[in-house]
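Reviewer 2 asked us to include a model.

Predict the structure of this chain.
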Amino acid sequence: MLFSFVPYVDWAAHLGGLLAGYFTGMICFSSWIKSIPFLLLWSIVGIVMTVVAYSYAIDYLLNEVEPMNDLEDVCEYFKQYFDEYECNCQLNNEE
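Predicted model (structure tokens):
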């Protein structure tokens, strides 16, 4: 959660990762339950919650999220904070 305080890192991404890990863990560790009814219950709950969480996240990402204007040119963003930054992420069109 400390990385949530870094600029342009959203706390919601860390919270989403925590929940996705929890729901996936429900699926993985439900096999350790000895009682068959509870094993099935927690397996099904884990699968349903995982599908719902990932479906919601993908839908939200595709339909609601707009990129920040500051990030249109990532090289310029890093150059303003790091003096000797050399951008290697764009193709060189001079050739």
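Residues 2-67 form one domain. The radius of gyration is 21 Å. We have added this to the supplementary material.
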